[in-house]
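Saturday, quiet lab. Running sequence design on the structure tokens for the scaffold JK sent over.
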């Protein structure tokens, strides 16, 4: 039973670029310790006709790791005093881009930051009027970029950096030119040939006409744009407003063919160009994004479009709800993009020190690209220490899959990712508005006993910790550790579909290829229950019980042992209904035989695969 559920985005309003561009484009150290003010912590996817299907990572090893760099959009979009003196988005100029490139080279390049990405507006004046060449391709605004885009890329390259540029998906309406504009290097093709006769619109703002790839002229248009960027020697393209996603759905907004066409066009230029997609992409097309691009935004804009760059509520905190579903979709060649990382400018960021550290902790453990939108010429000491912590950056860059929450019972969460060397990256988060203790239990990760712990933000070893580690965190605070495991945990598994269990309500057994025993229990809704019987342990105690489940969206259930009080357990989305994941819950068990119940209560619970119960508390 899978009724539609509201996403976290639908529960929040005013958190994306639509209201802004629609008009325009139509450490804390933890354990209670806080540093002194100012101190720094030491089916076959669709594709365009003839589109190439090669792994996008093959060309030059693109996106072998999440990229690091700087983007212009956060400062362009902010109302922070002085950033945009000549009107909205006026920050974007050649002078400002080069100033940031120089600062990136001087301060952050040695830590791996290399991309300087120019966002929306480079072809528009301060009144947002666009410029196009005779072939319907965007041309740089002569006031913003008086020397043109090639000169900007040359300067960036001269600093040993890479240059990025931006386009919205589709043929911009202003470029149509009554259908009479010719397409470069495509005799007989005009803008009338590359779009549908009814001029249906596409992209997140309906600012462009949808390209019709049934006509080869459409691919030739994309080829012409890609060749222009290659001639200018750009290394990165952000393609924005892509659907399904960007808060749009339906055939008009399905841009998979566009993305495939861009991959083909980029390959034809012979120049490695990283292709990044934006924004809030549809997870049901994750295979397409992975096949044709090097990265994809999983969420709405992180910027608040207010008098700071971001705020915690709008929308840093949203990523904790939305990132888990994508955790198995990323890897070398293509990564989940959580959007801009604005932690370096203090007051202009709009965040507390604890929130700034937590922001970067999540981005790093989720293996997101790390690209800041801060003013790099004005980084404060604390911000610089966050952005240059090589141990935290290494977590982001180690090539391993992104982390997932393993104890998401409430605002106190533990996220974990297994490192290539067998250790674990473990993040503790307190998402509450008041201080709270957060505990990571080794049993949640599959081991027990003593484990060595290193504090990555403080860059120091914490010695061995037996069975768990606890830290008291400030509001919206975090810790990040490397944990080297102790003894492998011995557990007993109990399959949900076992005939020994008791099902009530509409609960029923179903087949499940992704599940350990080939089956699961589903239809747990509106009071439906699954009771595991005959769960046996030798000693009284509190046990860390791992619950394996499948859920295409985030759901909750009450879990309890025997007749005790239940724990409301949050099950983050597994991304689809064919992937199993695990969360853990602390349950009191008595020596001998016990029962463990998963109760859907008054809503819809996930499908349950199995539980694993340690043999010792």
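Result came back. Writing it out in full:
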């Amino acid at each position: 039973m899978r009724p539609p559920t509201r996403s976290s985005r639908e529960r929040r309003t005013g958190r994306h670029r639509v209201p802004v561009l629609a008009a325009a484009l139509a450490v804390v150290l933890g354990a209670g310790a806080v540093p002194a003010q100012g101190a720094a912590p030491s089916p076959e996817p669709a594709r365009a006709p003839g589109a190439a299907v090669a792994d996008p990572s093959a060309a030059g090893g693109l996106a072998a790791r999440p990229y690091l760099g700087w983007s212009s959009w956060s400062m362009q979009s902010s109302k922070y005093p002085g950033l945009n003196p000549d009107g909205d988005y006026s920050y974007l100029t050649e002078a400002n881009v080069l100033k940031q490139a120089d600062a990136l080279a001087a301060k952050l390049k040695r830590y791996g930051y290399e991309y300087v990405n120019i966002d929306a507006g480079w072809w528009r004046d301060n009144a947002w009027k666009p410029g196009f060449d005779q072939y319907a391709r965007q041309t740089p605004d002569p006031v913003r970029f008086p020397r043109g885009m090639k000169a900007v890329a040359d300067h960036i390259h001269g600093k040993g950096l890479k240059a990025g540029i931006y386009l919205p998906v589709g043929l911009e309406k202003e470029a149509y030119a009554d259908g009479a504009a010719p397409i470069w290097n495509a005799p007989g093709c005009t803008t009338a040939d590359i779009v549908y006769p009814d001029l249906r619109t596409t992209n997140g703002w309906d600012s462009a006409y949808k390209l019709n790839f049934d006509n080869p002229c459409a691919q030739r248009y994309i080829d012409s744009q890609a060749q222009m960027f290659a001639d200018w020697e750009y290394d990165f393209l952000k393609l924005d407003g892509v659907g399904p996603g960007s808060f749009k759905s339906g055939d008009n907004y399905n841009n998979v063919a566009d993305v495939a066409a861009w991959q083909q066009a980029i390959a034809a230029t012979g120049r490695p160009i990283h292709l990044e997609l934006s924004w809030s992409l549809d997870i049901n097309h994750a295979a397409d994004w992975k096949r044709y691009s090097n990265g994809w935004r999983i969420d709405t804009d992180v910027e608040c479009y207010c008098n700071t760059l971001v705020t915690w509520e709008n929308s840093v905190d949203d990523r904790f709800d939305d990132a888990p579903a994508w955790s198995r979709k990323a890897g070398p060649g293509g990564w989940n993009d959580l959007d801009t990382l604005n932690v370096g400018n203090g007051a202009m960021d709009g965040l507390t020190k604890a929130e700034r550290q937590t922001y970067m902790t999540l981005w790093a453990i989720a293996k997101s690209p790390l690209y800041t939108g801060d003013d790099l010429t004005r980084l404060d000491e604390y911000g610089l220490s966050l952005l240059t912590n090589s141990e935290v950056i290494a977590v982001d860059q180690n090539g391993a899959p992104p982390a997932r929450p393993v104890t998401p019972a409430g605002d106190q969460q533990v996220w974990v990712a297994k490192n290539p060397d067998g250790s674990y990256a473990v993040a503790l988060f307190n998402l509450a508005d008041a201080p709270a203790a957060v505990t990571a239990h080794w049993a949640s990760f599959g081991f027990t006993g003593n484990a060595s712990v290193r504090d990555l933000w403080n860059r120091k070893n914490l010695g061995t910790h037996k069975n768990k580690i606890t830290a008291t965190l400030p509001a919206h605070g975090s810790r990040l550790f490397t944990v080297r495991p102790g003894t492998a945990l011995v557990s007993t598994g109990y399959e949900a579909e076992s005939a020994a269990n008791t099902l009530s309500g509409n609960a029923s057994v179903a087949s499940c290829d992704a599940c350990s025993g080939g089956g699961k229990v589903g239809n747990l809704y509106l009071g439906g229950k699954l009771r595991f019987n005959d769960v046996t342990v030798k000693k009284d105690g509190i046990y860390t019980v791992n619950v394996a489940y499948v859920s295409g969206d985030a759901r909750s259930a009450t879990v309890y042992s025997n007749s005790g009080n239940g724990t409301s357990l949050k099950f983050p989305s597994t991304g689809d209904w064919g992937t199993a994941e695990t969360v853990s819950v602390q349950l009191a068990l008595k020596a001998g035989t016990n029962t463990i119940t998963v109760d859907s209560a008054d809503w819809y619970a996930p499908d349950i695969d199995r539980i694993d119960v340690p043999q010792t508390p």
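Notes for JK: The longest helix spans residues 216-231. Confidence is low (pLDDT under 50) at residues 1-60. Ask whether to fix the surface positions before the next round.
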